[in-house]
Amino acid sequence: MEELNFIPNLASGPLDVYRNSASFNWKQLKLALEGDIELLRLKYKIWKTLEEDPLFAHHVVTPPVEELKRITQLQLKKINEYKFLTNAMFNASYGKRTRVIMTINEAVQSLNPSVSVKMAIGIYLFSNALLSLGTERHLKFYEATIKDRKILASFSLTEIAHGSDVRLMRTTATYDPRRKEFVIHTPDFEAAKCWVGNLGRTCTHTLLFAQLITPDGTNHGLHGFVVPIRDPATLETYPGLIVGDMGEKIGVNGIDNGFIMFNQYRIPRENLLNRTADVTEEGVYESSFSEPSRILGAALENLSAGRIGIMQESCHSISSAVAIAVRYAATRTQFGERDNEVPLIEYELHQWRLFGYVSAAVVFKLYIENFTRTYLSIVEKSNSGIRVDNLSEAVSEIHAMVSSSKPTLSWCVLEAAQQCREACGGHGYLKCANLGDIRSNHEPTVTYEGDNNVLSQQASNWLVRQYEAALSNRAVDSPLRTVHFLDHLPSIAKSTFSCTDTRQLKTPEFIISTYKWLLCWLLKYTYEKHEAEISSGRTKVQAKSKTQVYRAKTLTRVYGEYLALTFSLQSIEKKDSELQPVLYKLFCLYGLWSLDKHLVELYQGGFANKETAKLLRDAVLELCADLKGEIVSVVDALAPTDFVLNSALGKSDGKLYQNLQKAFFSHPGVFERARWWRDVVPSKL
Amino acid sequence: MEELNFIPNLASGPLDVYRNSASFNWKQLKLALEGDIELLRLKYKIWKTLEEDPLFAHHVVTPPVEELKRITQLQLKKINEYKFLTNAMFNASYGKRTRVIMTINEAVQSLNPSVSVKMAIGIYLFSNALLSLGTERHLKFYEATIKDRKILASFSLTEIAHGSDVRLMRTTATYDPRRKEFVIHTPDFEAAKCWVGNLGRTCTHTLLFAQLITPDGTNHGLHGFVVPIRDPATLETYPGLIVGDMGEKIGVNGIDNGFIMFNQYRIPRENLLNRTADVTEEGVYESSFSEPSRILGAALENLSAGRIGIMQESCHSISSAVAIAVRYAATRTQFGERDNEVPLIEYELHQWRLFGYVSAAVVFKLYIENFTRTYLSIVEKSNSGIRVDNLSEAVSEIHAMVSSSKPTLSWCVLEAAQQCREACGGHGYLKCANLGDIRSNHEPTVTYEGDNNVLSQQASNWLVRQYEAALSNRAVDSPLRTVHFLDHLPSIAKSTFSCTDTRQLKTPEFIISTYKWLLCWLLKYTYEKHEAEISSGRTKVQAKSKTQVYRAKTLTRVYGEYLALTFSLQSIEKKDSELQPVLYKLFCLYGLWSLDKHLVELYQGGFANKETAKLLRDAVLELCADLKGEIVSVVDALAPTDFVLNSALGKSDGKLYQNLQKAFFSHPGVFERARWWRDVVPSKL
């Protein structure tokens, strides 16, 4: 355990009574969840460095939004200076480098989500996009971004009137052969690019997606262009642009989301990102599909990397939320036998409200860690030109996985943050509890990088295609084996619930096999509805639209849960034997607690019998009771340091009321008379 | 319809296409939902007056929390000056006066929830408490509060370590016969009173609840005292008090929630509110139950009035949220057949996400309007000394009703606000959409005035008592007849689902009878579990605790929905025939959409058959499709004026992108270079 000495010990205090009953060492669990000791060490190094830097001190009162933007920009500069990404790391293999960048992102996000968004968009997404969409002539932008940090970029895709449906974007880039330039134009406000992070106040360049139009008037569809926005020396925007800040939002106000309208704005021909297609000096459009496998890999990365980052951040957010709520529950007493007050954590209702989310946090962390490794190894192979079997099928499967997991995780985390706030009662409503900010900052993840409901449809489309293959005895295209079980469709569909004791339910076998039945049934239910709608004369678009509620939408959610279960189970099987008992319990709780939400389908499809609901729910409550003695140490393993957690209710010393008192008393002006008293008590004349 | 001319007409525009398909006049529906034309007129008068007053102008950027407190206090003063509560109204009957006060509260809350909280606590709750808990000697406080508005009060009950369990409060008021004073003392920070609205910066007096201790050392339990806090002329707090502001919260930051510690602080003996008990000058405790019926009525009012106010405000919040989201859905197009884009409202998934909440808004409004009248008439009779049959039973039943309805409504509204935000996509995340503020300001209602989970238990306790009576053939104590159907327990319990067509489900009869079955089954399920726990040797406290999840908690929620259904149905039956078709559709949608969440119990208890889930869910989707042509006019009837709604996405003219453009362009400094640019672009030396 000496190797884990870089993790600070926890102060002894009121939480000891629950910590002492744990069956495992919390630091070891922490390492198991992180998956890599070097990455864990890096995280702690970043947290410690930033804790010691006054620029990263927490604000007792939320600063004005403009000030938040200033601080965020300064923090980004400072992080650049700290060079957490060493040259050695930068020059390591793609997979290793990316995991380091992801770890830095996660560590920074937990302190100020706006900084990590600013960094991810402004530096990493942009430079990756240059590599995958651009060619040699764009390397100067790449160097200026990732090495010199002179460029801070943004991504201009969404328009005011078009978000999810990118085909209908209306910003144009028309080639002018006379001056060898593209002329960018925004026809009206509806076509203004918007929600562009970093654009409102700070970026120097944007990666613009616009309809490419050649001199013959042909529209060649959306293409990427590097467009200068601001003079890096003065931060003045260039003439020909109307660039504005979108104003205050529900959260992440450190990010300057902007909108932009182009007025016949000219950029050099060379600023077209021309890996897949180019326009000659004369204005002829030429597409070049020279390296299809690399383009596929690049597409995969652009689509998925951002969403994987969101899921990693979501894991962090849910971990912080449950850590606060569980520590509060273990130290806050209320009611009891006569006047012997009892900690909230002893109440079955309170356990049930929280422990499901604790188990979700653990399962998600294991899943995403495992999935990220799988994902990176495929991208790495593809990038390096190593032949990957079924690469295009793997790309599709990964897209479906991400498109179901991002909704499943981000929604669950949003619910968790809310439940944790409520479980901390009124005190949870204080800013100093930090649950409000965790929630508000997490909230946009259900919308951005693909609205959850729209993404869900992409996942269900892929799933139904695999089902159709299985139905017609064709091979299922599942190189990652997430739906290879469809090969056994008939036998799975026939299975029914036959347990008579909760012990039989509290097993990975029961959970995984029930999920397989559920997926098969939902596929059938979705597919048959779709076919019926088509038969009744509806168009494909209409039929798809009539197949979402109760069907495709549920299917995607269930698939997301199934992925989290199967990938985390793989991980658990490889962990230390000391950790396995608690991990299996958490796994089973997450599985049964999630199945609880699909009981109707188990009944409707004829899988369940009259006893199923009661047995399943009894099992959930038994697991909650079983985990009571473990849960405080589990959240110790999930929680970041106290500085990062930043909650008066969730400090690891468990001194709830002393911490609350400190928070109250150190509030600026707490005991002052209102400075504006004269305004409300007019003097008598 | 001339009588409704005080309601401004709606501007013609993109929403016309959906408005023209409505089967009813939206102003008439608005009146039907409000229930009283004079109250509706008053609401519009208040909204118009405040719209014309620059002090009530909306803020494009959230002001700092301290400034929010200043503005809120100024707004309260201004509202006092407007005298919306005329002398005639003030001198009207109790019921009439109270409904006027409630209407003013609702109208003000919709503009700035902090002002209405400040007013409700600082003026009305305090003055009512003086009347019900105090005697003649406290009339001077009453006059100074409600007439002269010289006192601004607060309520000090909750302590840092004790919220829901009031018995264990530790602040003491010890009588000192020598100086004929009570000495108030706070033993430590855990016993500091907290969450006291108005205490942090502004109140002059507080109504303190403390353990009354006589010179012989006997503790007589919690009693109310009027305690001076600040000099009204200078707003300086008095020596002997540590009074602080609790700092920033998730929402309602215009309210100065405070905490207070008393250091041997002395108040006159007469400041004890002595209606039910007094301490003689010599220090002898004397209780006096002279007028039991009035005391009961008073108790009823103190317990329930605040919670009814919360439910009225909740109705307003959900109305605003769905109005914004539905108008957005009707004007925002996305995807479609080829390039013919389709408004979001045309998608079944989008209808399903929103229309259930629209139906909830309508059903809740009708329920609460009806219930408020019932409630006020009982209180009025009891106050005026008219004998009310079964008064104490009615008080218990009303407490159970409020204790289930406040959770059911406030949770549903919280979900609605969130779903509406998500349904507006990224644009819904903008402050100028107003969905974030609606949500954050609504959020504390699930915790304050009785935490929803704690209140739920009080409701289920009452329900189980009635069930026990029915089981043993005793009379059910239900003077308001909310559970009189328990007299027919055996026949209800035997009923099963026998529909074969969705038409049979879309009826009040099916919905109400299914709810009765559900309540009977949940009562049995809860009761039998409790008895089993007792038999196995658990204490009552333990048995109750083991009966909450899946049982008592669900029972309370179902009872709350049942109340909303039965009371709104009573109302609908009396409405104009022109309005009834749409009202019945909305009623059925709310009923079936809510039953959808209890399908597991319908299966588990043997009521449902394999087809039930599909039929019920098909019926929900049919109703959504059926309501598509009505829904825009329904939200017109629910929505306040555009000024009050304050949403760039939800304006009644439907000019979505023009309104959004105006919001963006009028943001202060929107196109300015960041004033702090020099901080992030250091000059080269």
UniProtKB/TrEMBL annotation, chains A, B:
Domain Acyl-CoA oxidase/dehydrogenase middle: from-to ranges: 154-263
This entry's Gene Ontology molecular function terms read:
FAD binding; fatty acid binding; pristanoyl-CoA oxidase activity
List, alphabetically, the Pfam families matched: ACOX, ACOX_C_alpha1, Acyl-CoA_dh_M
Can you list the GO cellular component terms from the UniProt entry?
A: peroxisome
The molecule here is called Acyl-coenzyme A oxidase
Residues forming the Acyl-CoA oxidase C-alpha1 domain are: 303-463
- Identify the keywords attached in UniProt to this record, alphabetized: FAD, Fatty acid metabolism, Flavoprotein, Lipid metabolism, Oxidoreductase, Peroxisome
| List of residues binding FAD | T158, G197
Q: Where does the protein end up?
A: Peroxisome
